[in-house]
Amino acid sequence: MSGTGRVPGQPTEQRFAREVPASAIPSQRNAADAYRVSEDQVHRARIVVARNAEDSEDCRRLLDMLGLIASSPDQLPPVRR
Predict the structure, then answer these.
(1) Mind listing the pLDDT tens digit for each residue in 24-60?
(2) I want to staple 29 with a disulfide (CB 3.0 to 4.6 A). Which of 5, 33, 47, 56 is the partner?
(3) Quick one: pLDDT at residue 12?
């Protein structure tokens, strides 16, 4: 690979000319939103933890450590409070 840092066969103009849809860019968050986590974010985080855990006990410990599970099923997880 050459030291130019370019992708072979793809001109610079084409690489950066792609438009990003407005929905792909998150809106700016204020101080009140800084600690707010959506249910979708919690769900995606749980999936990532489950895929990368060594076993079920490791998964439970990681979810608990990250605040992604509640102590009882009728409560919100700590990250959602």
Answers:
(1) 676 776 666 666 788 898 899 999 999 999 999 999 9
(2) 33
(3) 54
Measured N-to-C along each axis, helices 39-52 and 56-65 cross at an angle, to the nearest 10 degrees, of 140
The CA distance from 74 to 27, in Å, is 31
Question: Angle 1-17-2 (CA atoms, 0-180°, nearest 5)?
Answer: 10
- The number of beta carbons lying within 10 Å of the beta carbon of residue 42 is 19
Positive or negative, the CA dihedral 68, 69, 71, 72 is positive
**Tokens standing for residue 74:** 């009728």
Most distant CA pair in the chain, distance:
57
The residue with tokens 């800084």 is 34
Residue 76 is encoded by which pair of tokens? 């919100």
So where are the chain's domains?
Answer: 40-74+77-81
Contact present, 76 and 67 (Cβ < 8 Å)? no
